[in-house]
Specification:
globular; four-stranded mixed β-sheet; 14 helices; six-stranded mixed β-sheet; disordered N terminus; 24 strands; alpha/beta; 477 residues; disordered C terminus
Length: 477
């Protein structure tokens, strides 16, 4: 495909005749639910996303540990919106938003597309934050994308496979040590599932190693497990994890990380080394770089995580046509959870629709009611049949919380088929020792490093890295 020399407007825009055009950036919870909210509105909707799917991010850890397939939590965005005739989807990574000219510039491969808008909802989400140590990503993938989850699955299963081949006790110990950095909901869920994978699913599958000897470490610089939850729930989760054999290390800050382990500084200043080939990073998030772009043009402030401080109606200062929702916005200390994104996306869509209908009817545009978030509670699973849940002052642990977690997550999975296959996979994983998604490939393990090499400017002259060419059994797990 030849590279476009100049940006071009999409053909659909050239044919548009005085119909309010809403551009939505991002196909996550905020973007998708905003688009669906506008299904009956007298507007045209263009959703621009850099992936072809809508990702149910809270269940990524189940893809990484072989419970679910990626298709069950990442249905095609085009298929979801197939019957919504006022909506279209553009694939591309948004690099610029011009607030003055009301245009969005996106790129897919070598094709650059410029899309104009009357209103825009920016829901580009957030990525993993390594707190200025981005080189950690090579050795400790986060949990933000399908690629992350599949790579982690390859590394986790691959670690057991490599240990089976090794005769060196030190290497076997290093391979069977799994470190999860970050004791928030994702870290707790990930540590719990690695423990169940080692203690139940893989038990007896190897002849030269005992998978139950795996050492799962959950560490965090914070002094408690599940910091966003009530202390009693964090303690309940920690108790359950310890019973499963998870080694919880709190007040431990990661200061360095490489292929074979990580350096940790404890609260008392002690520096120590943990040998581990498989690390998972679930500590910290950083909003999309688009937040900085919007702030520079509008004069809005951004917080330490790169989130934009928005008005009470989720808009930028001086730009009532620009809405920022989900993980990109900062308002009243709202948490970066799916419900905030869903409710924010729907709110922005309703405001736009009300304004369009008022103009169409020749009426005064109604005054905007400030966005109000309805907190439906927080939940986290620890293991099969065990979870913690907090809904207002109500705190629930154990089996009841686990059932609540199942029902809530099932409700927000998009599509009947995805719900059905998810239930079947859950039944297999939770009521037996089996997991249906344990296949791994060499590409899953080494693709990140290979892509960095082949997209680097010096790739043409530099020798290929060993990790990009060696077989799976020799690659870093």
């Amino acid at each position: 495909m030849s590279q476009s020399k100049t940006p071009e407007l999409t053909p659909a825009l050239a044919q548009r005749v005085h119909r309010h055009h809403v551009v939505i950036i991002g196909s996550g919870f905020g973007g998708l639910f905003a688009a669906k909210q506008l299904r009956k509105a007298n507007v045209d909707v263009t959703l621009i996303a850099k992936t072809t799917h809508h990702l149910f991010q809270p269940l990524l850890y189940q893809v990484a540990t072989g419970i679910l397939s990626e298709g069950e939590i990442a249905p095609s965005t085009r298929m979801i919106l197939k019957d919504q005739h006022n909506a279209s989807v553009i694939l591309g990574d948004v690099g610029a938003i011009d607030l003055e000219n009301k245009t969005v510039t996106s790129q897919f491969l070598e094709r650059i597309t410029v899309t104009s808008y009357d209103s825009i909802i920016v829901a580009a989400g957030a990525g993993q934050s390594y707190f200025g140590n981005d080189h950690f990503a090579e050795y400790a993938p986060g949990m933000k994308t399908i690629d992350d989850a599949l790579e982690l699955r390859g590394r986790i299963i691959g670690a057991f496979d490599q240990a089976e081949l090794s005769t060196d006790p030190d290497e076997i110990e290093r391979l069977l040590t799994f470190v999860v950095v970050g004791a928030g909901p994702t870290g707790v869920e990930m540590a719990g599932q690695i423990a169940e994978l080692a203690n139940k699913t893989l038990d007896g599958a190897y002849r030269h190693i005992d998978s139950r000897n795996a050492h799962i470490i959950l560490l965090d610089a914070a002094p408690k497990v599940l910091p966003p939850f009530a202390d009693s729930l964090g303690q309940a989760a920690a108790t359950r994890l310890k019973k499963m054999g998870v080694d919880i290390q709190l007040g431990a800050m990661v200061t360095d990380l490489d292929a074979d382990g990580l350096t940790v500084k404890d609260a008392d200043g002690t520096v120590r080394r943990i040998s581990s080939r498989t690390k998972v990073w679930s500590a910290g998030v950083a909003a999309s770089p688009l937040g900085k772009t919007l702030a520079e043009q509008s004069g809005a402030e951004i917080d330490r995580a790169g989130r934009v401080l928005v008005n009470a109606d989720l808009t930028l200062p001086g730009h009532p046509e620009v809405f920022v929702v989900g993980d990109m916005m900062a308002l009243n200390k709202l948490p970066g959870v799916a419900q905030v994104a869903i409710q924010g996306g729907r709110y922005a869509a309703r405001v736009i629709e009300d304004g369009v209908e008022a103009v169409r009817a020749g009426k005064t545009v109604p005054e905007r009611v400030p966005f109000k978030y309805f907190d439906k509670g927080s939940m986290a699973t620890v293991s099969r049949f065990s979870a913690v849940a907090q809904v207002g002052p109500i705190k629930v642990t154990g089996f009841i919380a686990w059932v609540m977690w199942l029902l809530v997550h099932l409700l927000y999975i998009v599509g009947f088929r995805s719900r059905l296959t998810t239930v079947i996979s859950w039944l297999t994983a939770f009521f037996s020792r089996g997991r249906g998604q344990l296949a791994i490939t060499e590409q899953q393990v080494d693709a990140r490093r290979a892509m960095v090499y082949f997209t680097a400017p010096e790739a043409a002259t530099a020798p290929a890295p060993e990790s990009a060419t060696r077989p799976l059994q020799e690659s870093q797990a």
